[in-house]
Specification:
There is one protein chain. By secondary structure, the protein is mainly α. Helices cover about 65% and strands about 0% of the residues. A two-stranded antiparallel sheet has the order 1-2. The radius of gyration is 26 Å and the shape is globular. It starts with a strand and ends with a helix.
Amino acid sequence: MSGSKRGPKGGSRPADVGNSSSLYERYKDALRRGHVAALRGRNDAAIEAYSEAASIAPDRSLPHASIGGILVKMGRLPEAVPAYERALELAPRDETALRGIAEALARLDRRADAAGALDRLADALEAGGRLADATDAARRGLELAESPERRTRVGAFAERLGTAPAGDEAAQRALAQATRVLELPPAEPVEPEIAPEPVGTPAVATAPEPDVLPEPEPEPEPEVAPAAEAEPEPEPVVEPKADIEAATAEQELEPEAAAVAPEEPPAPEPAGLGIALGAAAEAHLYAGELTEAHAGLLAAARAHRRAGRLVAAVDACDLAIGLAPADPDLHLLLAELYLDHGWRTLATDKLLLLGRIAELDEDRATRDRLCSLVTERLADEPRLVELCA
């Protein structure tokens, strides 16, 4: 039969259905490899995988936006701009591409062009009902390039935010920042040296792609101190006087109060446990027992974290990445360690990438655990909240 293939039970299906399914699987696989490479910091490999995805699905904006994000992370800003422009030709309201090109242009000191991209981002966010995020984008555009139109628009956004519920923390924060900028005297308008050329096609309402890669923000990678942990740290010594006072205070409690008194938090775990677990994991590694080595490194990282040795915990995770780069347990633990350090940007980028991989793999369990961490520690990060919505 022309144009059809026989099915396994004698049925038929159009030939292009099988071809489309195969292409989509190849596209997903290339994206997955790009995300994993990006998680590992293998930027060249990530660009290669994303380029492959773009060649398989030339109508998708995501691979081009992803390439732009990696190039920004590598400091190759002039190359990142065309990648983002290509993404915007395909999806004029792609939030990732608009944020990314605005960042790249601002860092290239093309402030008026960056403000124009932020104006378009504010349009897209407002159309999506995200008023607080739209206000932030418009306010940032005003900071980059003063104009009466931008000032008026930020003022209109701020007025609308003023009616938001008192418990809307994102709205209150955006309102406070917008008010601060509006109270400053107008700056001299910034004129572009060369009239900006239109990027892509006129803005048309399009549905966002389901697996958008977050744009990496410039943040210096933390320097990890050399591991020199030959001896475990001594446990803190409690003075006898403190013991006596604690016992006396407990005796003075009423029976009912003593029954419900909160328990004392457990003492930090001795550092020696993490060191011992790490040594055992390295022994497995040298013996070629990679599964045992990976599990041991994760156990060592968790023990170091419980003992408050965050640098040693990150070191153990970095070793484990080489053994199982796509292990969700490992990346969730790293995100928690980044948050413990105060590195919110690194944690956010890692969780966004991990979330996209979970979507591609239809891994509901990883997504649920990721969103639980977001709810607990990053509930004010709009991109992660949207991912978990």
